[in-house]
Design a protein that fits this description.
globular, 22 helices, binds ligand BES, alpha+beta, binds zinc ion
């Protein structure tokens, strides 16, 4: 825990929060629930205007205008169910279906075409429809009933740096469909256009989208809030030799012809709409599982991830049916900013986890687990992210145990716990709260292990208290109960009240649950996962540090990746030049082929200014775009006297980085 070092301007935070909120809360079943605050906000917007009676001047409203007319800024915490990261007036309208027709223009780096939105009207009035956009060039909007659409007036509001730009559309009375013609910007925050040079094959360009958390709006105008669920269809037009895949019904047999049709029949939140285009081929791994990758990586990926089908089966057996038909993986180029992304039916995966020994496949278990926690039950706002990531991290560990046994399980758990402790050491109290207050903040900037590992530890404590079988039953029931819904933290707590707290009043206690979810730190007496395979390394490391044994005396034969990671991550802050050189020459760490090991070693090297690792560090930073690695490395370089080289390497790598990677790391490097 960090002391509260600075006080953000509360007024500003609340102001932005209120303004940027969507205008109602939605209950677990998707029905809007008006609250005083949301009502006031409704009145503060153009709600109630009909298409014809909005004066032209009034269409250029700004968030500040809204603030002026909504002076009831609450001083309390964020309101449950309010999405402070969407402009959409989801109390007036809900988008139910999206129909896309987009052409990928690789020369100009734009997606161009039309999005047709089917909308459900929730009020008798005829307010303007407000959608989320970011850097979209909107050329025409039509609206109407069914297929009879007419041109309508639209306007863009003021751009907010975190949220993008609201698009306000004047709807004819009774309209239930809107067709928007638009194109994306080459710098769209949710799209990366790659040059052939950045791919494995080096011959064809590549495109991929990454919508979570609030980037779908940079490639589709829509209600970009996780509480809104849509089905979608898409026609994607590409250069003929490339294949398009989406978070939808990919057909492994598709011929490459440059026109691809998709359908996602289950309702999903906008952040799960995903597209990739490249020189992709398919290889099956099991009956329902397979890999899409560039041909250069296909066999290695299929071998590395061959246990995916088993993972799918054990998860179904323990937590209920997999409801999404196929489960495939898409291997992206190394600039992908995450390890993985749970796009339904098709998880997007970094190639940096293809280690050759399945040591990093917990990532696959994690993205697969999201098919239950996250995709089936979705966080209603980004404050509730722990419902997605905490449950998923808990399930990941369990899947790893089912498939690879107890020792692997213990090690994965222990590493997660160490990550959590490290995060708690350098975060402010307010950011250690699972149901985090994100008002006025960019979710990309606040990314941490807290929702993952604290969320998972909380569930592990529940499991320990009521017994594993009972807890598994609870999870299975939970997934059924809320299937295909977006829920808030409070919905979950209410569900706990009605289930476990009633069933096990002598074992569970509501006050402690509140503490886990709404207070910083880890409650006293929480479980502390550890692994014998790790603790037995502690005396060995200590003997070496004391100079009692040489590195070459350590019997590392049979060490797992996890043990290596533990051994390195728990080295003291400072090592001498001789110690570094000895470790490196004995274990060849600078040249490690395992990216996680290389990362752990480079963290040590940077904080000790170990020069022989510098070329590898530069290569690592330039060729890998995964922020889990880049952010800590750049941050460490900045605080350990290597800011010049951080800047130089960042500038060199920048053209190949994803827009998100550029944004979050330039903040670290230039502080803007
Ligand atoms: N859904 C996340 C990635 C994400 C979270 C993107 C929040 C944007 C905002 C994904 O499932 C994830 O957690 N990826 C991790 C995997 C790891 C914890 C095994 C990653 O990329 O490192
Ligand atoms: Zn996740």
């Amino acid at each position: 825990m960090l002391p509260q070092l600075f006080h953000t301007s509360l007024g500003r935070l609340i102001g932005v929060g209120l303004l940027t909120a969507s205008l109602a809360t939605v209950t677990a079943c998707g029905k809007p629930a008006d609250t005083d605050a949301s009502k006031a906000k409704q009145e503060a917007t153009a709600s109630g205007d009909s298409a014809s009676d909005i004066p032209e001047s009034a269409t250029k409203y700004t968030p500040e205008d809204l603030e002026k007319s909504a002076p009831m800024a609450q001083q309390a915490g964020p309101e449950s169910g309010v999405d402070y990261h969407s402009f959409a007036n989801t109390n007036d309208y809900l988008i139910k279906h999206v129909d896309l027709d987009l052409t990928a223009d690789f020369d100009n780096k734009v997606l161009k075409g039309e999005a047709i939105l089917d909308i459900q009207r929730l009020t008798q009035k005829n307010p303007a429809l407000i959608l989320d956009t970011r850097d979209l060039d909107i050329t025409n909007v039509r609206a109407g009933v069914g297929n009879s659409l007419q041109d309508v007036k639209f306007s863009l509001g003021k751009t907010d740096p975190n949220l993008g730009t609201p698009l306000k559309i004047n709807l004819p009375k009774g309209a239930n469909r809107v067709a928007i013609q638009y194109q994306t910007s080459p710098g769209a925050s949710g799209v990366q256009w790659l040059e052939p040079q950045q791919t494995a094959g080096k011959k064809h360009p590549f495109l991929f989208t990454q919508a979570q958390a609030i980037h779908a709006r940079s490639f589709i105008p829509l209600q970009d809030s996780p509480k809104v669920r849509v089905t979608y269809k898409a026609t994607i037009r590409t250069p003929e030799e490339l294949l398009a895949v989406m978070s939808a019904n990919n057909d492994p047999e598709t011929e490459k012809d440059g026109v691809y049709e998709f359908e996602m029949p289950q309702p999903i939140p906008s952040y799960l709409i995903a597209l990739a285009i490249g020189n992709l081929e398919f290889k099956p791994m099991g009956e329902r599982t397979g890999v899409y990758a560039e041909p250069e990586l296909l066999d290695a990926a299929a071998a590395e991830f061959e246990d995916t089908e088993d993972m799918l089966e054990v998860t179904e057996k323990n937590y209920g049916p997999y409801r999404w038909d196929r489960y495939d993986l898409l291997i992206l180029p190394p600039s992908f900013p995450f390890g993985g992304m749970e796009n339904p039916r098709l998880s997007f995966i970094t190639p940096t986890v293809i280690a050759g020994d399945k040591s990093l496949v917990a990532l696959i278990a994690h993205e697969l687990a999201h098919s239950w926690s996250g995709n089936l039950i979705t966080n209603a706002s980004w404050r509730d992210l722990w419902l997605n990531e905490g449950f998923t991290t808990y399930l990941t560990n369990r899947i790893m145990q089912f498939v690879y046994g107890d020792e692997r399980y213990q090690m994965e758990m222990a590493l997660g716990y160490d990550d959590l402790k490290a995060d708690l050491d350098d975060r402010e109290d307010k950011d250690e709260i699972m149901a985090i207050d994100l008002r006025g903040r960019d979710p990309d900037e606040v990314f941490s292990n807290i929702p993952y590992e604290k969320g998972s530890l909380f569930l592990y404590e529940l499991e320990q208290k009521i017994g594993r079988e009972n807890f598994d039953q609870f999870l299975m029931d939970y997934f059924n109960h809320f299937a295909f819904q977006s829920i808030t933290t409070e919905d979950f707590v209410k569900y706990l009240d009605q289930t476990l707290l009633k069933q096990y009043p002598d074992k569970l206690d509501r006050a402690r649950i509140q503490q886990w979810i709404f207070e910083p730190g880890i409650p006293e007496g929480a479980p502390q996962p550890s692994s014998d395979a790790f603790t037995k390394l502690d005396p060995i490391r200590q003997q070496w540090l004391n100079g009692e044994i040489k590195a070459s005396d350590i019997d590392t034969e049979g060490w797992t990746f996890h043990q290596w990671k533990y051994f390195l991550d728990s080295m003291p802050e400072k090592l001498s030049e001789d110690q570094l050189a000895e470790l490196d020459s004995t274990f060849d760490l600078t040249q490690s082929k395992n990216n996680e090991i290389a990362f752990s070693w480079l963290m040590i090297a940077v904080r000790n200014q170990y020069k022989p690792a510098e070329p590898r560090l530069e290569d690592f930073l330039v060729t890998i775009g995964r922020n889990k690695f880049l952010r800590p490395l750049y941050r460490n370089m900045m605080v350990h006297g290597q800011s010049d080289s951080a800047k130089r390497i960042f500038e060199k790598a920048k053209p190949g980085y994803h827009p998100l990677t550029v944004k979050v790391n330039s903040k670290i490097i230039y502080g803007d």
